[in-house]
Records
---
Amino acid sequence: MSDKQLIPARYGKATFVKRRQLIRVINTHGTQVVDCWAFNAKNISEYMSMEHCRVAFERVTPKTGDTMVTNTRRPILKIMEDSAEGCHDTLLAACDRYRYEKLGCKTYHRNCTDNLWEALVAEGYKPPETPSPFNLWQNTPVEEDGTIKPNLPTTKKGDFIVMRAEMDLIICFSACPQDITSICGNKPRNAHFEIV
């Protein structure tokens, strides 16, 4: 097993993953949302697409055994294990400077959109756009009245998800900087991942 790699609180991290390798993402403190993106390493205009994923597994959130797909409907990540039993989000866009402006920020606030771009550029890639992320451990279910609320995290310290790469890919994570709503329990923290 490889060494754990840090996803620093409020920042992002990207890395190359070979087909069939396993990616284990760890909610080190139990309260951290981690935005997750995956791109075809040979053509990053092909990427994991939440709207295509929901059609593929016919649910709002995936469960163990489901395969995440790209914007061309090809398999990209398969969920092998999930200690949080599907407590993830596929609906909400990544936070960005405009989201924080609407929340009242008068100065720059770190955000997942910029984290994605910074992490990919650091690895020599330039994304064509910001796809909607797979929001690991984000507790924003669709309520009975149809609303989506930023609920407090329900995950435990050490919760993890294991995904298998179905193609050579670039995976990117952002330890969400959200500290205004309760999505991360108001205190962003680091998380970890490892490639096996």
---
Amino acid sequence: MNILYMMATICDRNQVQRFLAFYREFGITVTLITYGSGTTASEILDSFGLEAAQKAVLFLFVTDTEWKKIKSALEKQMKIDIPGSGIAFTVPVSSIGGKKQLRFLTEGREFEKGEESALKNTKYELVVVIANQGYTDMIMDAARKAHAAGGTVIHAKGTGMEQAKRFLGVSIAAEKEMIFMVVRREGKNAIMRAIMDTAGTDSKAGTVLFSLPVTETAGMRLSEGG
């Protein structure tokens, strides 16, 4: 089965350029970077001789074949199995806003879309919207008209955004906002379509969006409208 994954890498901030260079070896430059803080217990940090560090999260897109090669190289080249080096994991992508967006996220690398998702029978999906900064209200207004309950915004910086002109036909800014919305699966397409019609790649928002399967939820009852 040919599956596309969103891959996340969590590492110390001072290791970002090292990981970006590593992924470039695999032809991957379209990456989103956001920042946070580690919460590892101090006694664990002490045992490994580490200090509490500011973290970076890198989001990129890989096929199942690419992931197998990257995982092996992460272990051999980046020594990611050594505590404190970082972690990486993947989540299968359910759907993407359009063919141009697929080509942009995969940078035209060889990928033939198979089934919608390896977890296609899930009740909910996580819609992830990537847009230029300053257009969250526009996007959420469109999503709510299609019955989305709400979303969470994370500020991020994009790398490899020059690829947008090649694959999307437009230029998009490096400063990004990522909006996360958990929605019912049967309403997902309408919400994604509403966002693309209002704030798609041809608009100033320059939106790229995709969805990920959600296996379990808690606290969603009130947002289901009874």
---
Amino acid sequence: MLHYSFCKPRGLIEALQVLSEYGGRARIAAGCSNLLPDLKARHLQDCLLVDISELEGLRGIQAEGNWATVGSLTTIAELGGSPLLREGAPLLWQACQSFGDPLVRNRATLGGNLGHASPAADTAPPLLAMETSVLAESLSGGRREFPIAELFAGPGRTNLRPGELILSLRFPLFERKKVAFVKFGLRNAMAISLASAALSLRMEDGLMQDVKLAYGSLAATPFRAFRTEECLTGMPCNEETLVRASTEAQGEVRPITDIRASSSYRRLLAGALLRQAARAALS
């Protein structure tokens, strides 16, 4: 028999107290774009739904110098509609344009998209390539900041500590790099990515420098493709370089076979999306 309870904390401290008390039984509820499908599919049983949707201080985009801090309750629509991010963080802004449909973008939050820890989370590859840091807090451990690469533990699993809540994300602005986010799904709208790629780089004297490449849906977690980055760094962006880097990428990814695609097909997508991203970034 399924059993759900519900509470709506009046402030951050109360929310952290509830998360500490209920531990693994507590489930964060905000935009609920991931939570509701799980509830309908009966993947969650005997849990406490903790509604944090109206907690103050966890929503909005703030700029300080060349850095941005984005609250975890900020919606994808707010990110995609931000002139600041369009100019200063275009890689994340691009990803938000292809995220679900307008109804989902108006509900889904950045913290929820990351905290759900789906390998296909659209915001994860851009934030990895942007070397984002995560600010989280728990009642027992206080606040801590850590690289976003340390957040993901596996499909549906994070490395957040017991009772810990994501407060915000922090990343640099206005890096003046060539960037592109590309993804491939089985249909144009509302498609979970079969594969996605986020690429950023600088061109100096005709050579690619400071290359950052992150993939989604091509391993158990979103990840940085460091070997492929090395293959691109210091090289001209020509067909020979991209073919060689694509081969490296196909060996670096660790995709699975599921109902949507085979692992071999996803390996091919890794190379194809890299070439597409490079051409889009430099166009």
---
Amino acid sequence: MNEVNKTLFIPLYGKAQVSKQHIILDDPVAEKIWEAEGFPIRGKSRSKWLAYNMAMRARVFDDWAETMLQQDNTALVLHIGCGLDSRCSRIKQTYKNWVDCDLPEVIAVRRQYFTETDSYQMYALDASDSQQVRELPDSDAAVVLLEGLSMYLTNDQLHNFLQALQEKFDTLHILMDVYTEFGAKASKYKNPVNDVGVTTLYGVDNIGDLVNDLDIQVKAEHSMTPPKLVDELRPSEKTFFKLLFTGRIYGKIYRLFELEREKLPHGK
């Protein structure tokens, strides 16, 4: 795998380590895949604090996806940049069609651990090529999970990707984490992805500007480290974790947004 693809092992490692502790995220599949595919993790990537953060982020995306499917379990679920994540099996809510997407070499590894069914498929997709979005399965509504993806796309590529989603689906519910421009610049020195060779990331300061000329609206901003999940840590760990991954400073680096496009009225 190239350097960008190798970044998928950082959240995989974190989820596997936290799952073993039986807190935050129950992910035996991550444990299994890490045992088979993992390699010696070095530097910041080994941090238990980062592992907790990765697991909490995954859990927030899981809970949001559950909520969206409770509202409409016929919507197409698209996990773009899925890596080796097992969200498709962690979700308890039934779904009609779930598609996990990533670059071809990642999907090739996924196929060793996941099996396609009538309701679950895997697609090779490069998010920087908006034409590939148009080749995804048809559906009136889509629930789109963009976890750990936006920072590998320029603002223009991300805008074009969102525009392609808008052209493809009448109704969209999107959850997307982004670095700020400051966060992207700071990542050159502080980001654990540097440990696998990635040196260039991109940030978004004003999410509204990104979708200003689209029909997609910013619905809400969410926390990736909500108090209910932080409370699952040992008391001796909570204070330091909060200093690292909650509060105003963290928000100047890394943010999580919910976007939506509601179905247009008939004839519009």
